Amino acid sequence: MSDYNPTPQQEKAIREYLHKSIVPLIEQVLVKKLGQAMSYAAQELVNPKREWVGLTDEEMHECWDSHLTPLGMKHARMIEAKLKQKNGYAEEKNT
User: Fold this and answer.
1) Closest CA to 84 of 57, 49, 51, 46
2) Which of 11, 47, 77, 92 could tie 6 with a disulfide, CB 3.0–4.6 Å?
3) pTM for the whole thing?
4) What is the distance between the alpha carbons of residues 4 and 67, in angstroms, rounded to a whole number?
5) Half-sphere exposure (CA, 13 Å, Cβ side) for 56?
6) DSSP state for residue 24 in the 8-state scheme
7) DSSP letters along 46-78, please?
8) What is the mean pLDDT of residues 56-66?
9) What is the pLDDT of residues 70-83, one digit of tens each?
10) Which residues of 44-71 are buried (b: 16+ CB within 10 A; e: fewer)?
11) Distance CA 33, CA 28 (A)
């Protein structure tokens, strides 16, 4: 522990200094961080980060009454690729 014992006048001066100097700095940091958090939250609401989850071959086959031929599977994958494109998922993110 310190042996320093400020007088009431010194303690008042220290409190005033802290209130005038330090508190505004803390408020600036808090306001900045709050603004950053709100900006991030707003961005996430507009463009949430989601990973494309495609269908497995088995799920593709389940969508038809019979087993898909290789050509049918190719067409199903082309449809899936078009859906990715229309929903803003670039090919390089989903390979």
Assistant:
1) 51
2) 11
3) 0.39
4) 86
5) 3
6) H
7) HS---------HHHHHHTSSSPPPHHHHHHHHH
8) 80
9) 888 888 888 888 88
10) eeeeeeeeeeeeeeeebbeeeeeebeee
11) 9
- Give the list of residues 6+ apart from residue 67 with CB closer than 8 angstroms, or none: 61
Phi-psi region of 88 (alpha: psi -120 to 50; beta: other; left: phi over 0): left
Could you give the percent of the chain with pLDDT greater than 70?
93
Tokens of 28: 């600036």
CA distance 68 to 59: 11
- Using alpha carbons only, give the angle 33, 38, 42 rounded to the nearest 5 degrees: 150
Best CA proximity match to 76, nearest among 84, 52, 91, 94:
84
Tell me the one-letter amino acid at 13. Answer: A
Tally helices (H) and strands (E) across the chain: 4, 0
* Six-digit token string for 54: 């495609």
Chain position carrying tokens 């961080």:
33
Cβ atoms 50, 89 nearer than 8 A: no
64 within 8 A of 79, measured Cβ to Cβ? no
